[in-house]
Specification:
Blueprint: E1 42-47, H1 62-71, E2 76-78, E3 85-87, E4 90-95, E5 101-106, H2 120-132, H3 141-144, E6 147-154, E7 157-162, H4 179-182, E8 205-211, E9 215-220, E10 233-238, H5 242-251, E11 256-257, H6 262-268, E12 274-279, E13 285-289, H7 311-319, H8 323-330, E14 335-337, H9 363-372, E15 376-377, E16 383-384, E17 392-398, H10 402-416, E18 421-427, H11 431-435, E19 441-444, H12 453-457, H13 481-491, H14 496-513, E20 516-522, E21 524-529, E22 533-535, H15 553-557, E23 559-560, E24 576-577, H16 597-600
Parallel strand pairs: 1-10, 12-24, 17-18, 17-19
Antiparallel strand pairs: 2-3, 4-5, 5-7, 6-7, 8-9, 9-10, 11-21, 12-21, 13-19, 13-20, 14-20, 15-16, 22-23
Helix pairs in contact: 7-9, 13-14
Length: 605
């Protein structure tokens, strides 16, 4: 099983790779040539997702938010063992009897990396900026939408006054930034925080360098209150091709590779000095349909196929999807069949449709449904609508993700049998057409936090862009009154059981609208070099994942291997770390079989 650093827990995610000429195989990765410090230990992580922004006010991709977890403190954190709320920048918190005023005690031992003290004023400024500047609320505005007033009566006290009760007050996943740096920013919509280095923060790491679609470099924050990380440098290096990342791992050019396909994982199980971790994931893999892109001002835009506004068409498409085949053939069993929006890992909020509600795999029923809805086959076997327009759809696919491509081929086959055409548009960057509404369907998925509020909020009407020219926090333009009503209720419900019931009702409503089809919950399948990383913490600590955690535990706790053997207690190299820390034996899969998207492209790109 994974060796854990004493008294430390872990949770984060990264990307990187270092030039082969700069590495000593069998030892911790060394620094890039020319930096004058070849003896320092470097932890390199390969990532397939490019950074959308180094600004915490704008970043939404997993790789970016993971970097912010490393570089900025949040008010609270999640324990690596069981994801319970623990202190972060705040050491304590207390609500008023009516739950409308929350008082946080800010720790006195947190300093910014430029030496200045971190205070309650930094937190108050961060939240007030999000409350008063719509651009600053782009990424995390749902957390502050209900805030009435935020003050810092003294350096150690933060007071948040709410308009109405809010259930996320111990799970405000908002990076706190240094006021003395960020108050100089003019336009938050354009400032990406990527021009001056090192970037001032108070987390365990400090960002020292960044090159677009190449790498992000970080060094330990020596003044971090929990203690500095043990590696001298952390590098997240971008790899567009997953096989190239695995090859770099074999050569010792990178220390860690996440999001392995079954074929890649199987090929690594007998490799020397490499360990494979296979753990239940915190992500879902879904099909999203364009419900008609629109802004909050009521204006519609984009080029989504109008037939997808018909619930009968959406239901027929999803009835033709065989989830079992996707889990067995694409994920090779390294996933669980999907239905609800929250993965089973989060048992409190997990939901499954009732038998009568479930959209089961039934191609014959799908064909009958389309016939009844007026989408009949013409002489050439093509489904056409009453307007004579054929049902030919486009689906956005991440070019870096073999899962998208593999599932796309199945969809072409399954939907083709219904007389429906599908063009799989595999792009390096799906963000632009997605934001413009220029898609019919898309491969979608998000990492879910222990508190599900954020992933639920991205389907509310409030998440839509203000105008077609603006950027919103919406996932795919869903705006449903009943869903919004349920979301508002869960947001103010403090009773855990009652709130969990409302969250399940939200998932049920989202399921019934038919705009989202969750196909699978992929495992976290990842690998690292034991001759570079001696120990590292998983989350949860008993059989959990390393990449994509809900905190900074993994890379903060990682210890460099001091010898060339990578031996951490006699376990054979290339062993599998299985679900619940049990060993897993994989059957090798054909080289042509790939897997799903959330593995190489985390979150919507």
């Amino acid at each position: 099983m994974v060796t854990m650093a004493p008294h430390r827990s872990l949770r984060v995610f990264l990307a990187s790779g270092i030039a082969a000429t700069s590495l000593a195989l069998g030892h911790p990765a060394q620094a890039d040539e020319g930096d004058g410090s070849k003896d320092k230990s470097v932890l390199t992580v390969a990532v397939s997702q490019s950074v959308d922004s180094l600004s915490p006010f704008l970043a939404q991709r997993l790789v970016s938010t993971s970097i912010h977890r490393l570089t900025y403190e949040y008010l609270t954190n999640y324990d690596a063992k069981d994801a319970r709320t623990i202190p972060g920048l705040a050491t304590a918190w207390k609500p008023s009897p009516d739950k409308l005023t929350w008082t946080y005690t800010i720790r006195d031992d947190s300093t910014w990396s430029d030496g200045k003290q971190a205070t309650a004023e930094d937190a108050a400024w961060t939240f007030n900026t999000m409350m008063t500047d719509e651009n600053a609320a782009t990424a995390n505005g749902s957390f502050t939408a209900n805030f009435e007033r935020v003050t810092a009566p003294d350096p150690r006290t933060l007071v948040i006054k709410l308009k109405k009760p809010q259930a996320t007050m111990t799970a405000l996943d908002v990076p706190i930034v240094p006021k003395h740096i960020w108050e100089k920013v003019g336009d938050f919509s354009k400032f990406n925080n990527d021009k001056q280095f090192p970037i001032v923060g108070n987390g365990p790491f400090v960002i020292t360098d960044y090159k677009v679609d190449q790498y992000v470099k970080l060094e330990p924050n020596k003044s971090f209150w929990r203690g500095a990380p043990k590696f001298d440098e952390l590098v997240l290096r971008y790899y567009k091709d997953g096989d190239a990342a695995v090859a770099a791992l074999r050569k010792g050019e990178v220390s860690f590779v996440p999001n392995l396909t079954p074929a890649q994982a199987a090929s690594l199980k007998s490799a020397g000095n490499i360990r494979v971790n296979d753990a239940p994931g915190r992500r879902f893999f879904a099909l999203a349909t364009n419900p008609g892109a629109r802004a909050r001002d009521g204006k519609k835009f984009g080029s989504g196929h109008p037939a997808l506004l018909d619930p009968a068409v959406r239901r027929a498409l999803f009835q033709a999807v065989d989830r079992e085949t996707i889990v067995e053939k694409v994920f090779q069993g390294h996933a669980v069949e999907g239905e609800g929006y929250i993965p089973p890992r989060f048992g409190t909020y997990f939901w499954k449709p009732a038998p009568a509600q479930k959209v089961s795999h039934d191609p014959a029923a799908a064909a009958r449904l389309l016939d009844r809805a007026g989408y009949r086959e013409n002489g050439s076997g093509k489904r056409v609508g009453k307007d004579g327009r054929p049902l030919d759809f486009r689906i956005l696919c991440h070019a870096t993700d073999p899962h998208d491509k593999a599932v796309g081929k199945y969809l072409q086959e399954w939907w083709g049998e219904l007389g429906i055409g599908l063009k799989v548009d595999c792009l390096d960057n799906v963000s632009d057409p997605w934001a413009k509404g220029d898609y019919d369907l898309a491969f979608d998925g998000w990492s879910v936090n222990p508190d599900p509020d954020f992933v639920l909020s991205i389907h509310t009407c409030a998440a839509l862009p203000a105008t077609p020219k603006d950027t919103g926090a919406t996932d795919n333009f869903i705006c449903d009154k009943k869903y919004d009503e349920l979301y508002a209720k869960q947001a103010v419900e403090y009773d855990p059981a009652a709130r969990a019931d409302l969250v399940r009702q939200l998932q049920s409503r989202l399921y019934d609208t038919g705009y989202m089809n969750v196909m699978a919950y992929p495992n976290a399948v990842e690998a690292y070099r034991t001759d570079q990383i001696k120990s590292i913490t998983t989350m949860p600590s008993d059989g959990g994942n390393i990449y994509g955690q809900d905190g900074y535990w993994s890379w903060w706790s990682a210890e460099p291997a001091t010898g060339g053997t990578g031996d951490d207690g006699g376990a054979p190299t290339g062993m599998w770390i299985g679900i619940g820390a049990a060993a897993v034996v994989l059957v090798a899969v054909a080289a042509g079989v790939a897997v799903r998207r959330r593995s190489t492209a985390d979150d919507r790109e």
